[in-house]
Design goal:
This protein is of the alpha+beta class and 310 residues long. It has helices spanning 3-8, 38-45, 71-74, 96-108, 150-156, 190-195, 247-260; strands at 13-19, 22-28, 55-61, 80-86, 119-122, 129-134, 137-141, 146-147, 160-163, 171-177, 181-186, 203-205, 213-225, 228-237, 241-243, 269-274, 277-285, 291-297, 300-306. The mean pLDDT is 96.
Amino acid sequence: MYRTELDQLAGLPFAKGHATGNDFVLLADPEGTRNITAEQVAALCHRRFGIGGDGLIRAVPTSKVPGFETQILDHPKAYWFMDYRNSDGSIAEMCGNGVRAFVHYLLAEGLVNLPIGASLQIGSRAGVKTVTRLVDGYAANLGPWGLVHEAKAGADSVDSLVLARNWEQPHPALSITMGNPHTVVALPEAQLLENLDLTALPEVSPTPPHGTNVEFVVPSEPLINDGVAHIKMRVYERGVGETLSCGTGACAAAAAMRYWARGTALINQWAVEVPGGLVGVEFATTADGNEDTILSGPAMLVARGVVGAS
């Protein structure tokens, strides 16, 4: 069923990359003329019949993205736009791991020059993001996090219920926005996280209109070590299924845990362990008194190729 879609893309160069196991098919479209359909995305990302990936990222000039052409007027340095699609072909606003892999791809392709310590602005459907190259990876400033249902969260500290597969009762959860939607569930012990069945989409009530990513989190004991809070996380990504890592999900998980612990000392440095590795989350106060969320971690390319014809 995927052969026709792949044949339509015959000869297309691609790269395969990942950031803590969150993997992507990466394509360069410097002229902005390559229209990748949802069906073609699903074919390329299929793990049996295609290249395989949690999503597809197209590198295209911001000025050539319909609906976002004016983004570059306010941010003239954001030349490249991260056109991100989930593995089922659906459009996603942002991917924290994806933007690190994207910048690494731009650098490897010679499309940008980014020395260690330098920063790059990237256009996206969740606004312009600034990514800084580190010695051992990249740090992406994903901007402020927010509460989706602020009044209810303020009153109850939770705003929804989540029922995972084989659970008898739903667990309370908190809805966080990182420019894309997240629903965070805290679990009391690591064994519950290990036994969690994420082969099916967890039920979220009330159901978000555009779906949500669902994070399940367990705090370490002790939570804080050398000033850094440590948590473990698994995630069911909207339009994908369980992934080895989710960057915006790690930020949302840390933000939720931090919100729940707001009666104690405010913790700004977090280490989030995911099945694919470890990412860092920092909450940094801005000059205007707001708060940015900075995600750091590695990114790498593992393969290059050309889509073949049957």
